[in-house]
Specification:
By secondary structure, this protein is α/β, with parallel strands linked by helices. It has nine helices and eleven strands. Bound molecules: NADP nicotinamide-adenine-dinucleotide phosphate.
Amino acid sequence: MPKVIAITGASAGIGRATALTLARRGASLALLARRRDRLDEVSADIARLGGQALTLVGDVTNERDLYDLVDRASERFGRLDVMVANAGFAIYGDIEKIRPADMQRLLDVNYMGTYHAARAALPVFRRQAAGHLIIISSIVGKRGVPFMGAYAATKFAQDGLAQSLRAQLDGTGVDITVVFPISTNTEFFSVMTRESGHATRADGPRQSAETVAEAIAQAIDRPVPEVFPYRRSRGLALLNVLAPGFCDRLVKRWGRKPI
Ligand SMILES: NC(=O)c1ccc[n+]([C@@H]2O[C@H](COP(=O)([O-])OP(=O)(O)OC[C@H]3O[C@@H](n4cnc5c(N)ncnc54)[C@H](OP(=O)(O)O)[C@@H]3O)[C@@H](O)[C@H]2O)c1
């Protein structure tokens, strides 16, 4: 049976690529983001692929919008199989320069947005005794890098929530997966430039949004606790447990720098 999948932050980047990848696999989609025009474009692309999507203009910081997304998906398609908590953004910089109000916005979108998505979807998953929450964190949610501390904290927070839920829901039919992408070619960096007030560059590896989307699609087919779409990055997460001081020097060398 085709899956019913809700995605937050589906108007661009990883969320959009995931929606298109899943539509090609026959999924029915419920897509949320703030920009109506961009959601309409994704919806038209999905229709061209022969798929179906409902779209909802909403903000993940608003708890009600996540309940609306789940309700509308359930009403239109009869159930909800997967919630992908993907919406997020970053601010680069020294935490002494990032104002508390901006740190709060990061927490509200990246962490509270994930929390609201989980709270809206989990009652449906429990009722069905089946469901899959997929949280898009970041490799910096496993290992912080210089000047990304404010953002990294929100990405670690997502993983903390997921680990607790995973253990708690073990054996209930509800799966929890966290995805840890490395630098991915999306609008993320133009948003970060705007939010931070200056551009940055990094010399490390990059991947495409389609690579991340494919890894998410595979996790939906076969749920696993953690997904590293750039496989070698799992090594950094492991190395950091064994040798955090060495990793400090490693990420300092390869980390993002202001231009
Ligand atoms: N790109 C990377 O290098 C990278 C690496 C690791 C992890 N990630 C994570 O991947 C996720 C997706 O990022 P991306 O790279 O695809 O960035 P992106 O291209 O900027 O897309 C972000 C998406 O989130 C939506 N969004 C932002 N704030 C929102 C809000 N308050 N409410 C609802 N939707 C909101 C945006 O749509 P609207 O503006 O239309 O609302 C957009 O659809 C994020 O959680 C990010 O932390 C990205």
